[in-house]
Design brief:
The protein is of the alpha/beta class. The protein has twelve helices and 17 strands.
C-alpha cells in the first residue's frame, strides 16, 4: 500500500484492514487543468523543435523554442478531427499557472514560445491578456512567440495586438478555399462565438479567410497555410461526396496567389479514430461504404481478416505527413493523385516566385525533400519524376 500512498489523489481499498485509503493531492490548483500543466517537467529538448521563424539573426540559428498550451479542447466539431464525435469541454489553465511556466522556460534558456492550443484565440478577452503578458516578456527578455488558431476566431484587433507584443508567426488550418469542401468538412462555426462575426456558409468562411490574411500581410505578421486534400465535399443534392482534384488545385492556387503565406503545408484526409468521417452514416458515400473502427487501425488484424484498405505506404505520402499504414486513406487519394497535386503546387509556387520575387516555402518531410524536392540556388523548387520516387 505504500506505493499507492505516494501517488496523490488515488483512492484504494485495503482488503486486509478493510479500509478505504485516500491520498491527498499535493496541489490545489485554481483551475483543474493547472494540475496537469504544472506537473509537466521538460527534462530534455531537441533542436528539431526550434522554429525557423524564431531566428536569432546575430548567431544565425533558430531560437530555442518551447511549445506551450494555455487550454485544452477546441469547442468545434470538424468532421475529420478526433473531437468531432466526443468533443471535450474546453479546459483553461489559470493565467497565474501560465505565467509561472513561461518565466520558468525563460530561466531554462528558452527564447521562443509557440502556443499550440487548438484554437488559441477562441476566448478573445483571454487571448488579448496573454498577448499583453507576452509583450512584457518580449520587452524584458526578448522572447518571441507565435500561435495556432482558427480563421474564424481572428480579427484585426488580435492581429495588431499580437504584432505589437512580439508575435512573429501565426499558423492557420485553412484546410480548403472551396466553399462546398469547407461545408463538407464541418468547418462552419455559425453564431456560437459572440466574440466574432458568425460564419454560416462556406462562402463566409472563404471570404473571412482572405480578409484575415490580408490584415496579417498589412500588419507584418508572418503566417503559414495548412491545406487538406481529398476531403469531404457537400454535393448539390445535400449528400457528402469527395473533393475532386480540380477542387484541390483551386484551393492550392488561391492559397498561393490570394493568401500569400510564407509557408505552405498540407496533408491528405485520413480516417482517424473517433472522427465523424470514419463512422457517421452521412459520410458513408465519401468513405466508399466502409466504417473504420477498432481493428481497422491495426495492420495485423486486417491481414488476419483479409481486409484490404488504402494506406499511405508509397513514398509520395511522406510529402503529405501520411507515411505508414496506421490510418486508412480515402480510396480516391492514390499515389498518382497525390503526385499530381504536389507537382501542381510546386509549379504554382515557382511561378509566384518568378512573378513577384517573393518565396513561399513548401513544408514537407525533411527526408522526402532531400531526395525528391530540392531548391536551386535561386530558391526555385524541382520535383522528381513520379517514377523516380521509390521506397
Amino acid at each position: 500500500m505504500e506505493a499507492k500512498k505516494a501517488v496523490p489523489g488515488i483512492v484504494s481499498f485495503d482488503p486486509k484492514s478493510e479500509q478505504v485509503i485516500k491520498t491527498q493531492p499535493n496541489l490545489e490548483p485554481e483551475h483543474p487543468a493547472d494540475f496537469y500543466f504544472e506537473n509537466l517537467e521538460r527534462k530534455s529538448h531537441h533542436q528539431n523543435y526550434d522554429f525557423d521563424i524564431f531566428q536569432n539573426v546575430a548567431e544565425n540559428r533558430p531560437r530555442k523554442t518551447a511549445q506551450v498550451y494555455t487550454q485544452l479542447g477546441c469547442g468545434r466539431y470538424c468532421s475529420f478531427c478526433f473531437e468531432s464525435l466526443r468533443p471535450q469541454p474546453k479546459q483553461e489553465r489559470s493565467i497565474k499557472s501560465f505565467i509561472k511556466e513561461a518565466v520558468g522556460l525563460i530561466r531554462q534558456g528558452y527564447e521562443g514560445i509557440y502556443f499550440d492550443d487548438s484554437t488559441f484565440t477562441q476566448d478573445k478577452k483571454r487571448a488579448l491578456r496573454i498577448m499583453q503578458i507576452m509583450g512584457k516578456l518580449n520587452r524584458k527578455f526578448g522572447t518571441v512567440w507565435g500561435f495556432n488558431t482558427r480563421i474564424d476566431t481572428l480579427d484585426e484587433e488580435l492581429i495588431d495586438t499580437a504584432v505589437k507584443n512580439g508575435c512573429v508567426y501565426n499558423f492557420e488550418g485553412v484546410e480548403s478555399l472551396v466553399p462546398e469542401v469547407i461545408e463538407g468538412m464541418g468547418k462552419i462555426s455559425g453564431k456560437q462565438n459572440p466574440d466574432y462575426p458568425p460564419v454560416e456558409s462556406g462562402n463566409d468562411y472563404v471570404g473571412r479567410t482572405k480578409e484575415v490574411f490580408q490584415k496579417m500581410k498589412e500588419k507584418g505578421l508572418t503566417n503559414a497555410v495548412f491545406l487538406i486534400f481529398g476531403a469531404p465535399k457537400k454535393l448539390e443534392d445535400g449528400t457528402i461526396g469527395a473533393a475532386t482534384t480540380e477542387d484541390d488545385k483551386r484551393s492550392i492556387k488561391e492559397s498561393i496567389w490570394e493568401l500569400k503565406p510564407k509557408w505552405l503545408s498540407f496533408n491528405i484526409m485520413r480516417f482517424i479514430p473517433d472522427a465523424a468521417i470514419s463512422r457517421m452514416p452521412k459520410y458513408q458515400q465519401y468513405r466508399g461504404g466502409q466504417e473504420f473502427r477498432g481493428g481497422f487501425y491495426h495492420k495485423k488484424w486486417r491481414d488476419e481478416n483479409q481486409i484490404l484498405i488504402e494506406t499511405a505506404e508509397h513514398p509520395i505520402y511522406q510529402a503529405f505527413e501520411s507515411a505508414g499504414d496506421r490510418y486508412p486513406n480515402p480510396p480516391h487519394m492514390t499515389p498518382e493523385t497525390c503526385y499530381d497535386l504536389l507537382k501542381f503546387m510546386v509549379d504554382e509556387v515557382n511561378e509566384y516566385h518568378r512573378q513577384t520575387g517573393e518565396q513561399i516555402f513548401i513544408r514537407t518531410d525533411e527526408n522526402f525533400a532531400k531526395k525528391y524536392l530540392v531548391q536551386n540556388e535561386k530558391g526555385f523548387y524541382q520535383l522528381a519524376n513520379f517514377e523516380d520516387i521509390k521506397g
